[in-house]
Design a protein that fits this description.
This protein has seven helices and 19 strands. It has helices at 2-24, 157-169, 196-202, 236-258, 288-298, 307-313, 331-342, and strands at 29-35, 39-41, 45-54, 60-68, 73-75, 81-84, 88-95, 100-109, 113-116, 119-125, 131-138, 142-146, 173-184, 206-213, 217-222, 262-270, 277-283, 321-326, 346-351. β10 and β11 form a beta hairpin. The termini are far apart.
Length: 359
């Protein structure tokens, strides 16, 4: 009889603690998660930090957190950590009354992109292992992964030559507003440079001489199409080619900015949460490098505009060095390039190839 009484008591206690956890387990529970870095480069490491606190005098036998994680964020093996198929991240906690637990999970960033791991499912369970209560919540956990910047020897020759020319030519551009002297007129001098008061004094034509300024501008243009007729999603190997183009463009833009050259990029692909093509005209200021790298991280490999029409969108450019990264060229593309040159731009075309096939 005593055995039956004990069994009934244990059953009632089990049902009671299950009821308590179901109704009170999630109350007074706080959970936060974040990445240790707001941004990092492809190939670097970061930490996903979880902080959970039980603010009530209630023992929680177990609490599970679960969230969907991109397969490009690779977790190391740790206790109480499970990454199912590299897509779901799970952690199991046991919390005493008023206890706080902080966990740090090392994450290897294997791919460029913008990642948000903030949606989390929390489930409280009882001593018997039966789920008691669950809730969905959002805790900001976002990280930008910049494209890998290439070493100088990794850049294809046409691109590395352009990069060097830009840095040299930034000191060879005349600024029409910076006048440093007057000299006699020479054949070929523009009429607008004639200094008429000095001409009247000297009795012969005099022209203004100008100082030089860093007025060079670079725009890297990325074509997301593999051919003139391509429209749908790209295959994995095709996406890899576009990723290489993005790394090349990011490297050239960063080096140009560090060399004092205004830089920007354009692509017939949209940025995250946008549908129109990405166009960031050349500019140069202190935060420009971070701004461009963030945009490269947010770039989606998805063609949102025909490349020929997209080149027409760039007709506002004047006096810009354009680096065109494309998997193909054609007579129609060449005609668009001639139009851009007619407007006073220079255009360097590099046909995207697999890494190691550039030289």
């Amino acid at each position: 009889m005593n055995g039956w009484v004990l069994a009934v008591v244990l059953l009632l206690l089990g049902m009671g603690q299950r009821w308590v956890l179901a109704h009170w387990g999630m109350r007074g529970l706080s959970y936060q998660r974040r990445f240790s870095r707001k941004a990092a480069y492809e190939g670097e490491d970061a930490e996903l930090i979880e902080v959970i606190r039980n603010n009530r005098p209630l023992f929680l036998p177990w609490l599970r957190t679960e969230s969907r994680i991109s397969p490009y964020l690779r977790f190391g093996r740790q206790e109480n950590l499970s990454v199912a198929g590299e897509r779901y991240h799970r952690s199991i906690f046991t919390l005493r009354p008023y206890q706080q637990i902080t966990r740090r999970h090392k994450v290897h960033l294997t791919h460029r992109g913008a990642y948000d791991a903030g949606n989390v499912s929390l489930t409280v369970g009882d001593l018997l292992g039966i789920s008691g209560n669950g809730v969905e919540m959002y805790s900001p956990a976002r990280i930008l992964v910049y494209p890998r910047l290439l070493e100088k020897e990794e850049l294809p020759l046409p691109v590395s030559r352009l990069q060097g020319d830009l840095i040299v030519r930034r000191h060879l551009v005349r600024d029409p507003f910076l006048v440093n002297g007057i000299r006699g007129y020479q054949a070929g001098d523009p009429i607008r440079d004639i200094h008429w008061p000095a001409t009247a004094r000297m009795g012969e034509l005099q022209v203004k001489t100008h100082d030089y300024t860093a007025d060079t501008k670079l725009l890297a243009v990325i074509n997301a199409q593999m051919s003139e007729s391509q429209w749908g999603d790209l295959m994995d190997y095709e996406q890899a080619l576009i990723e290489r183009a993005i790394s090349i463009a990011a490297t050239v833009c960063v080096e140009a900015l560090r060399g004092g050259v205004a830089a920007g990029f354009a692509a017939n692909m949209p940025l995250e949460q946008e549908e129109k093509p990405a166009i960031l005209p050349p500019e140069r200021y202190s935060a420009r490098e971070e701004e461009l790298l963030s945009a490269f991280a947010r770039l989606r490999i998805l063609r949102c505009r025909n490349f020929l029409s997209f080149l027409d969108d760039l007709s506002f450019l004047r006096g810009t060095d354009i680096l065109l990264l494309s998997a193909y060229t054609s007579e129609a593309v060449e005609e668009k390039i001639r139009n851009l040159k007619y407007l006073g731009n220079t255009v360097t075309v590099y046909l995207i190839k697999k890494e190691g096939q550039d030289r």
